[in-house]
Design a protein that fits this description.
The complex is a heterodimer of chains A (253) and B (69).
Chain A: H1 3-8, H2 10-13, H3 19-28, E1 30-34, H4 40-50, E2 54-58, H5 83-94, E3 99-103, H6 112-116, E4 121-124, H7 129-142, E5 146-152, E6 155-161, H8 174-177, H9 188-191, H10 195-214, E7 223-228, E8 233-238
Chain B: E1 3-7, E2 10-15, H1 21-28, E3 35-39, E4 42-43, E5 59-64
The chains are: A alpha/beta (253), B mainly beta (69).
């Protein structure tokens, strides 16, 4: 780290739980953000600002004007641009010390394992259950920690999966929570979402990622965080492994 | 004899002791594929819905799956 970087990160290096070692760990970390949307945006902004050295962005979409009320990594001039390109520019402008790799593609069962295998932590902020299942399967097979966030209307959900089987036999995966794709799933486009909710859950995804990388505190492994915006209430509950899970139940522990 | 459990903050006093999670969801009309059940601050594994009997005093929350980003 040079003098400019030490000054840039001074307010988090001073934290006992981060320190110089934690900052070095952030600088060496490779974090993949699947979905450069409402969750991936604020998560990516905070991770770039914190000095995560290498950030991968996966999205095959272009910026639409209806994205802007919640996807604050974009501005009005980005409408029509590739999301990964526009967001990579925002992140490197925010912090020129980091590298951003763009994947202008859709993550699926074919490419997921190959891409995810090169990363230390994966953030899932996708907008459909098929993609969430593909990310989960790839993280499970490569034993890559998964920070999973979801939005709907005024509600947010967040879970962190350690994926380090067989060491932690109790560790759940995403499909211990959602075993099968829910029929007629609601989307942000069909039922709406409050933009500020993306900031709340996306920022928490960045927080959990920073905890995983630096070793600060206890990540939400085996927990589910639920936020209800209308009530202004949140709670954290246990999410145990389902021994008959259609994904991780197949693994012989 | 009947038991009392709390579901989404509301008290249900007319349930048969030992009713399973599956039976309760069918009774209340919740589609199993769209929700998770939280029982006493822990997610109930879906594969145990049919055999898990509920007990007097249980506190349940029905959590609707969301997948937006």
């Amino acid at each position: 780290m040079d003098a400019a970087e030490l000054e840039r990160y001074a307010r988090q290096i001073v934290l006992r739980e981060v320190g110089g070692a934690g900052q070095q760990a952030l600088g060496h970390a490779r974090v993949l953000i699947v979905g450069a949307g409402g969750l991936g945006g604020p998560a990516g902004l905070y991770l770039a600002a914190a000095g995560v050295g290498h950030i991968g962005l996966i999205d095959d979409d272009v910026v639409d004007i209806s994205n802007l009320h919640r996807q604050i990594q974009f501005d009005t001039n980005d409408v029509g641009a590739n999301k990964t390109t526009a967001m990579a520019q925002t992140l490197t402008a925010l912090n020129p010390h980091i590298q951003v790799q763009e994947y202008d593609t859709k993550l699926d069962g074919e490419n997921a394992r190959e891409i995810i295998g090169g990363y230390d932590v994966v953030l899932d902020g996708t907008d459909n259950f098929a993609a969430r299942f593909a990310v989960n399967a790839a993280c499970l097979s490569t034993k890559t920690p998964l920070v999973s966030g979801a939005l709907g209307r005024f509600d947010g959900q967040l879970a962190v999966f350690k994926m380090d089987w067989p060491k932690h036999k109790e560790g759940a995966c995403y499909r211990c929570f959602v075993p099968e794709e829910p029929p007629d799933a609601e989307t942000c486009a069909s039922v709406g979402v409050v933009g500020a909710l993306a900031g709340i859950i996306g920022s928490m995804m960045a927080m959990e990622t920073i905890k995983i990388i630096t070793g600060a505190g206890k990540p939400l492994y085996g927990k589910l965080f639920l936020y209800g915006g209308l009530e202004g209430e949140a709670r954290t509950i246990n999410l145990p492994r389902d021994p008959n899970c259609p994904e991780c139940g197949q693994i012989t522990l | 004899m009947q038991m009392t459990i709390t579901i989404n903050g509301e008290t249900y006093a007319d349930l048969q002791p030992g009713i399973s999670v599956s039976e309760l969801l069918a009774h209340l009309g919740f589609p199993e594929t769209k929700i998770a059940v939280e029982r006493n601050r822990e997610i109930v594994s879906k594969s145990t819905y049919a055999k898990m009997g509920l007990r007097d005093g249980d506190v349940l929350e029905i959590i609707t799956f969301i997948g937006g980003g």
